[in-house]
Design brief:
2 copies of one chain form a homodimer.
Chain A lengths: L2 H17 L4 E13 L6 E6 L8 E4 L3 E8 L8 E4 L25 E7 L4 E7 L10 E7 L11 E10 L4 H8 L12 E4 L18 H7 L9 E4 L4 E8 L5 E6 L4 E6 L2 E8 L2 E3 L4 E7 L8 E8 L8 E7 L21 H9 L17 E12 L2 E6 L2 E3 L6 H6 L27 H4 L2 E3 L2 E4 L4 E7 L12 E5 L4 E8 L18 E2 L1 E4 L3 E8 L4 E7 L2 H5 L3 E6 L24
Catalytic activity (chains A, B): 4 L-ascorbate + O2 = 4 monodehydro-L-ascorbate radical + 2 H2O
Organism (chains A, B): Physcomitrium patens (Spreading-leaved earth moss)
Enzyme class (chains A, B): oxidoreductase
Chain lengths: 573, 573
């Protein structure tokens, strides 16, 4: 039996699995550091069961996932956030440290148990400090029977993308909160499914990440590029997710057109691209057909956009069977659109529309509208990111527990301020009266089942003529993206252009430089849900907040989620 | 006013302080990483209030110390152990993670409050994972009025010694628990009061740690050697403590005889040495007279003994005022006795006797005798250290809480095994039937006020012809050292030679290669007290256990010490 026959059998077996009934799917995990060389440079990497990336979870729509996590790190806590899973009725298993639960202490075992309600391409990752950037992430694939999908394919692959640093996350974190500020800098490499190529072992004079470097490393068992084996003349589904710490990524499958069919696990009106922007926190499902020259392999490539690229292209191998995986393409590595071609980025974002008949249209009006201005500011001499001039700091009591058990002092009881956005020049660095922000941890409280609009307004950073991309992610929800715009949002004129017919439904939306986005969601999931920029350094520097809703409907919390901060007050000795 | 006048005024002021009443002494600490260059090589270092070493605590005998600790590390827990302080009635403030308390989570504030009952030279340090080796330590000086001391002096200094690695403790910890085992290796440098000299900034061809390297670095504000200013013709008290991670240290004050007057804060019969062995976890108070050539300065030096020295001498400057501190001695760096001259080490240890009239003699008989054989073993393919073939693993529930609130499953309820030591050949690697140990967390329970003897028996490691020094430290107690011996302890013959008249009283005792030591203590301090080898890698590899006593007298525990592991069961929602 040849390799491709094996592959066919595996795929058939997967389809058989998919026909089975909703099940309880169990995983038993141990988290610890390992020594790994994702890009041929050895460093300490956070791992699950000694694997990097952490193991891919496979489940079917409606299954219950039971993940038993034992923390074997000597002194660090951990949590796992199941990115894109709504945790309906189980908000305490959302895995956001100090929002939904206490960190899992070293030596402790914690069991997540939740339903995966909707098929799609998801992922999970550490959500404490910058542990995601430390390597704590993996894919979470929720399937349904193929015949229920509105498209057909012969096989599938899944890849998770990230950017990668050689400095430890401890050093990165410290630099971000130090005076003077020490930025993490551009990543050393880009990883596709945990593999990149920085160090060219055994070859002198070969540039890190260059084609020759990849060729050189292609047989190195520690860091050979990831391989996507395909049979010629077939259609494949490729599941792509980005857990990048900093970078906006652009994915290219050399010579192959990508038909985008899902975004963040939600159906979109299919559209074709040659290159795909994937912002951190987003996933895409694309179809491609293996109709190219079958005697060679092709590049799967990822480049940085949105920041001036100094990191070599991340590369994997699209292997046309029966070519060997080590048959490295001799073609140049794919080139993405110019890093600062924001118009191209916006245009692609606007191509994403909900698939008719598969997604509901949003309610026509919000019950409440919140404006969030995200700016770079100073707090006590530190560079921070702030929302309406409040830079978020996590306090050591889970917000969910504080709400449920009415524990005072766990977060700032003052509601977040409404920002006089009309006075604010988004094209200039913060003026004197807005330059200094304060630290805080206010929580937005929404009435259950109310329709909420969030206007996220981007602006200039502290540096003149500079504005950054921020991929905003909401826990516990998908939201409709009603509109994108440039400059300052105009509440009088802009709503007239909102898409209320087929806006895309997602959990993460990129807010472009100097731009705004308006999202709408229904506050129908009792719990406390972080809303934050998915860029690790930005969130670590305060770019986030918490949305709470249906407080009176929050279920009793499992004691395993408690024990830290002011929840110690719940002890009865 | 000259420098020496300032010094005299400071010393007078200190004496005035010492005459004051017992007081409440408050400290407000924030723990976080800093970037520091203790030996001129930059790395992340654990710090209190951005200081390394952490601040020196000054208090008077009988004072109450209140130390409010805020953990600002993003993802790591911390605790502080007050080494040598007995914590009578406050066993929950002993600061041993998972024995006396839960780790202080990131963002939490924890307040230690305890009495320092006895004057002496103590210290404090992190007691979670290998955070002490990561730099989390400082001095704790408890004074009494000078006229109450049985010796006189004109001024005093305090230094804390350690060995230093450039690898992070994360990497060190991972290597120690990996297959294959990766040892931490010999330290890169030795630090006196947080200063060493590895990197010779600006001088080509100068060996790390060499005399020229020190000269070169002597004006570098980041890593200039520590300076001990003295006036000629005076007598000084020097407080010396070692928090070394691995190394047995030997201290020399060039050209000056040291008169040892205290060990671990307890009075000893004064004796004179030219060099002083200080094992990790021990402190000594020595007197010296500044009667040497006053036109020059002298070396304060520390060398490794007990392991073949590959680390350069650690150096500080004994500054004879008014010479400038930068007047580096041109004399060779002091040389310590041969690293493997165990006889010299034992002989010096045997010079230490309690000062007549200042320490009580021990009870003549024990109520219970426990034999502990410390060996190097294999557990599931990992190299470990074990006590009676059980390698200690910390479980995530504080033993003290489990005992107080009768929480089952927190530790192994089976008592530790009595080991058939008569059958064991301490001069050979573990035989087949003892080579493999098991992991566990048994607790020794002693009857309140009973007299306990512990026979600590050393043996050959897994490597033929190799046995190591282990400094054993007991929390919550000082103990009498009744005797040292070589080879296998003979319960029939050896007790006849016990010193029951003036044995030294200490909290840490070195057990020499292939040797044994017998200690006696009274189990009169209700609580749970770690008894462990003070070498960080050894303890991390399982060389420790817990002694519990007077369980029924353990006071109610502050809720701030709880919340982790099975103490979550104490939640009443």
């Amino acid at each position: 039996m040849g390799k491709w026959d094996v592959l066919a059998v595996v795929f058939l077996a997967m389809m058989v699995m998919l026909i089975a009934e909703a099940a309880v799917v169990k995983y038993d995990w141990t988290v610890d550091y390992i020594t790994a060389s994702p890009d041929c440079v050895e460093k300490l990497v956070l791992s699950v069961n000694n694997q990097f990336p952490s193991p891919t979870i496979h489940a079917m729509e409606g299954d219950t996932l039971v993940v038993r996590v034992t923390n074997a790190i000597p002194t660090e806590g951990v949590v796992f956030h199941w990115h894109g899973i709504h945790q309906t009725t189980t908000p305490f298993f959302d895995g956001a440290a100090y929002v939904s639960q206490c960190p899992i202490n070293p030596g402790e075992t914690f069991t997540y148990r939740f339903t995966v309600e909707r098929a799609g391409t998801y992922f999970y990752h550490g959500h404490f400090g910058m542990q995601r950037a430390g390597g704590l992430f993996g894919s979470l694939i929720v399937s349904i029977s193929l015949h229920k999908e509105p498209f057909a394919y012969d096989g599938e692959h899944s890849i998770i993308l990230t950017d990668w640093w050689h400095k430890s996350i401890y050093e990165q974190q410290l630099g971000l909160t130090s005076i003077p500020f020490r930025f993490v800098g551009e990543p050393q490499s880009l990883l596709i499914q945990g593999r990149g190529s920085y160090n060219c072992t055994g070859l002198a004079g070969v540039a890190p990440g260059s084609l020759n470097c990849i060729v050189c490393n292609s047989t190195n068992p520690l860091c050979a590029p990831h391989v996507l084996p395909v049979m010629p003349g077939k259609t494949y589904r490729l599941r792509i997710a980005s857990v990048a710490s900093l970078s906006s990524l652009n994915f290219i499958l050399e010579g192959h057109t990508l038909t985008v069919v899902q975004a963040d696990g939600r159906y979109v009106k299919p559209f074709q691209v040659d290159n795909l922007n994937v912002y951190s926190g987003q996933s895409y499902d694309v179809l491609f057909t293996t109709n190219k020259e079958p005697s060679r392999n092709f590049w799967a490539a990822v480049n940085v956009r949105g920041r001036k690229m100094s990191t070599p292209t991340g590369l994997a191998i699209l292997q046309y069977l029966p070519n060997p995986a080590t048959l490295v393409p001799l073609t140049p590595t794919p080139v993405s659109p110019a890093w600062n071609d924001t118009a191209a980025s916006v245009a692609q974002a606007k191509m994403i529309l909900a698939k008719f008949g598969y997604e509901q249209a949003p309610p026509l009006k919000p019950d409440r509208t919140v404006t969030i201005l995200g700016t770079q500011n100073m707090v006590d001499g530190h560079i921070k990111w702030a929302l309406n001039n409040i830079s978020h700091v996590a306090r050591p009591t889970p917000v969910l527990a504080a709400l449920k058990y009415n524990i005072r002092g766990a977060f700032d009881s003052e509601p977040p301020p409404d920002f006089p956005i009309k006075d604010y020049d988004v094209f200039a660095p913060p003026p004197t009266n807005y330059r200094n922000a304060t630290s805080g941890s206010p929580v937005y409280v929404f009435t259950k089942d109310s329709v909420v609009d969030i206007i996220v307004q981007n602006a200039n950073t502290l540096t003149p003529n500079n504005s950054e991309i921020h991929p905003w992610h909401l826990h516990g929800h998908d939201f409709w993206i009603l509109g994108y715009g440039e400059g300052q949002f105009d509440p009088e004129k802009d709503p007239a252009f909102f898409n209320l017919v087929d806006p895309p439904v997602r959990n993460t939306v990129a807010v472009f430089p100097y731009g705004w986005v308006v999202i709408r969601f229904i506050a129908n999931n009792p719990g406390a849900w972080p809303f934050h920029c998915h860029i690790e350094p930005h969130f670590h520097m305060g770019m986030g907040t918490v949305f709470a809703e249906g407080i009176e409907h929050i279920p009793e919390l499992p004691t395993q989620t408690l024990g830290c901060g002011l929840t110690k007050r719940l002890m009865r000795l």
